[in-house]
Amino acid sequence: MNKPLLKLFSLGLIAYVCFFTTNYAAESKTQGPRFESEIQAFIAKDKTNPPKSGTILFIGSSIFRKWTTVTEQMSPLPVFNRAFGGSRTDEVLARMDQLVFPYKPKIIVYYCGSNDINANRTSAIILDNFKQFSERVAAQLPKTEIIFVSINKAPQKKSRWNIVDEANAKIKSYCEKTPLRKFIDVNPVLLNKDGSSKEELFVEDKLHLRQPAYDGFTTIIKPILTKEWAKYSAN
After folding, report:
1. Nearest to 106 by CA among 180, 56, 50
2. pTM, full prediction
3. Which CATH superfamily is domain 34-233 in?
4. Bridge partners of 59?
């Protein structure tokens, strides 16, 4: 490429980068962080009716957010829900100062990673973000337990179930080697004996769940959570 053309190309590239950066910054300033309105709604609610400190926090993405009966189904366990939007693991990580540490939970029940897979993120990234979450909890709340609920093998992800399996396996291994960390597999609720999806448990988007799926989750999660909570209430 001769010098005039090279100079023209360079100027064009610089102009493009400046245009993209300016517009991206303007867009970000206008839109703000994702799910900010949901987060602010939680904060406003906590000012008038805060959950009791030192209880059980459910946090993560829309699979938990849409579990509107979780408080009743886990009763009499002291559970509250702060799952938000279609969040990814990095977004839950970014909101810890607002939605985790102020409550000083004794147990955290965590569901996230499904949206990471939809965004074509690898199992290694999902594991790393969960490890960062776990390590931050260990640093600030060293006696708090974290229970990771397996990423769902939803029909919508059928072509990426291998990534779901990889992420779940890596996180299960991490939990088994890390104090106060547990992994719960709820996928048996969602699958037939031949490994196919129980389509009747999913709504039209083949991702989110109908109430019978949450009923099944309760039969798996509640006994484990009851046993773990007994350790704290006995002290």
Report:
1. 56
2. 0.85
3. SGNH hydrolase (3.40.50.1110)
4. 110
Q: How confident is the model at residue 2 (pLDDT cuts 50, 70, 90)?
A: low
> What is the helix (H) or strand (E) element at residue 224, kind and residue range?
helix 211-233
The domain ranges of the chain are 1-32, 34-233
**Closest alpha carbon to 84 in 68, 60, 107:** 60
Q: In whole angstroms, give the CA distance from residue 200 to residue 147.
A: 27
List, in sequence order, every beta strand (DSSP E) within the chain. Answer: 56-60, 79-81, 107-111, 145-149, 181-184
Per-residue pLDDT reduced to its tens digit, 180-192: 999 999 999 999 9
- The conformation of residue 151, written as its DSSP 8-state character, comes to P
β partners of residue 58: 81, 109
201 Cβ neighbours under 8 A, 6+ residues apart: 189, 190, 209, 210, 212, 213, 216
Greatest distance between any 2 Cα atoms in the chain: 79
Contacts of 91 (CB under 8 A, 6+ apart): 34, 35, 85
pLDDT of residue 8: 44
pLDDT of residue 29: 37
Residues in a beta bridge with 145: 107
Question: Which tokens is 91 given?
Answer: 């977004």
State the DSSP code for 101: G
Q: What is the mean pLDDT of the segment spanning 134-154? A: 98
Report how far apart, in Å, the C-alpha atoms of 110 and of each of 52, 60, 234 are. 19, 6, 24
Tokens of 181: 């960390």
| pLDDT for the residue numbered 33 | 77
CB atoms within 10 A of CB 43: 13
